[in-house]
Write a structure and sequence with these properties.
Distance between the termini: 51 Å
Strand order of the largest sheet: 4-3-2-1-5
Oligomer: single chain
Shape: extended
Number of strands: 9
């Protein structure tokens, strides 16, 4: 009943006004290509405001605030935040502005080349036809390229782990620096898909959540107050080094097959007809820059260097950043046991290199590393005198981000084969 009453409280348009809006309909239609301003930072009155390429998704009649010219939120069923539209309209009515409240055609636009999270509702005054004259406002501000609309920027203060304070103000100059750009590139490449996020959360719960056993029914057995948790069996059946080796071999084979298929198609097209340029271009764009044997060798070399850098990151950061508190005692015991042994191969044939964390721990540690990589690089990879620095080089950052995203997809596709490690239970004090 409350929702029906709220609906009846909506200001009604006069018969002539509603008939006019329904008669002329929207100026733009779905799937139409247009140019649109960034309504978060500029208004349609600003003749110098940059335009962005966009596509109309859908159109609806919406209420417009007569004072701010903003689109009022649409009412949703239920209580709470969904009723903000009704509250706004009621406030305007109470201020004697309800008489001027009207509905206008608004359009939901998608900015070309950018994620759907940038989609937004805009009025017809904020949209411009895709004409040569209007396109000058695109090229003048963005060099003719598709530009990214700005989000609302507010002062934001973040506290880092070491107590340092970083203040970001309205798109500070740091956002345009090569260092910031490269860090954002790698951060986006580190995003885990839902499948791997589930694996990471399950691994955390098994290790950190303490489980209390049920009461013992046999009175002769003494009940303990200790809880039970789980730890990885070390060494793991499929270690991080194993995963990286499989990744290199699989991608090497894929590159060879793509390279062979491309040249086989080129030969067939050349022998069959002379108009083979379209097919060649399409194949080249799908396979990247691997067109010669030198490209194959270079790609193989770069991928191997990337794999070695990931293994080195695991070995260096695992004791400090990649272990939960419940795992540190186990790691200390394993390292102490190795310290007692000679540098020579042990009885089971284990060399000094095979005692590194990357040879002992399972692929779940890789997922923890992916989450930590942006922080690790921003904290320890800023030495300008370091020739291997990633963030200070655009080329190295692009290569690292490309292979990192490729590795995450590889692990996701082989999730059953990658996470074969087992757990064992231990008793811990119930703090």
């Amino acid at each position: 009943m409350a929702d029906t009453t709220a609906t009846n409280d909506l200001p009604k348009m006069s018969g002539e006004e509603a008939a006019d809006d329904e008669s002329h309909g929207p100026k733009y239609h779905a799937q139409q290509k247009v140019l649109c301003i960034d309504t978060n930072n500029t208004t349609s009155d600003d003749a110098s405001a940059p335009l962005y390429e966009a596509v109309i998704r859908k159109s609806e009649l919406k209420y417009i605030d007569p004072t701010t010219k903003k689109i009022l939120p649409k009412r949703k069923n239920g209580r709470g935040r969904g009723r903000v539209g009704i509250a706004a309209i009621d406030a305007l009515s109470n201020n004697n502005l309800g008489s001027g409240l009207s509905q206008e055609w608004c359009h939901h636009v998608h900015f070309n080349g950018w994620n759907s999270r940038w989609d937004r509702w805009v009025t017809e005054q904020d949209i411009f036809d895709d004409t040569i004259e209007n396109r000058k406002r695109v090229s003048e501000h963005h060099g003719g390229k598709v530009a990214r609309p700005q989000s609302k920027q507010k002062e934001n203060t973040k506290k880092r782990k070491r107590g340092a304070t970083v203040t970001v103000e309205n798109g500070a100059e740091n956002s345009s620096s090569p260092l910031h750009r490269n860090l954002q590139l790698i951060t986006r490449a580190c995003e885990l898909p839902f499948t791997l996020q589930t694996v990471l959360c399950d691994d955390r719960d098994k290790i950190t959540v303490k489980v209390h056993p049920p009461p013992i029914l046999n009175p002769q057995q003494r009940s303990t107050e200790k809880a039970i948790t789980m730890l990885h069996v070390i060494p793991a059946s499929t270690s991080i080094v194993d995963i990286m080796g499989q990744y290199i071999q699989t991608k090497k084979q894929e590159d060879l097959e793509t390279f062979a298929n491309y040249h086989r198609r080129m030969q067939r097209d050349l022998s069959g007809n002379s108009s083979c340029s379209d097919g060649g271009v399409g194949e080249e764009s799908s396979m990247g820059d691997i067109l010669t044997k030198e490209d194959l060798k270079m790609n193989k070399k770069k991928r191997k260097e990337f794999a070695l850098s990931i293994i080195a990151l695991v070995d260096a950061s695992l004791p400090l950043f990649l272990l939960y508190a419940e795992e540190r005692e186990q790691f200390a015991k394993v390292m102490a046991q190795f310290a007692k042994e000679d540098d020579k191969p042990s009885d089971n044939g284990q060399t000094l290199e095979e005692r590194q964390p990357s040879h002992l721990y399972p692929a779940q540690i890789l997922l923890r590393l992916f989450v930590k990589i942006p922080d690790l690089l921003s904290e320890f990879d800023l030495n300008k005198s370091n020739p291997t620095s990633i963030l200070l080089s655009d080329e190295k950052s692009q290569v690292f981000a490309r292979f990192l995203a490729e590795l995450i997809v590889f692990i996701q596709k082989r999730v059953d084969e990658s996470f074969t490690g087992k757990y064992h239970t231990i008793e811990v004090d119930d703090d």
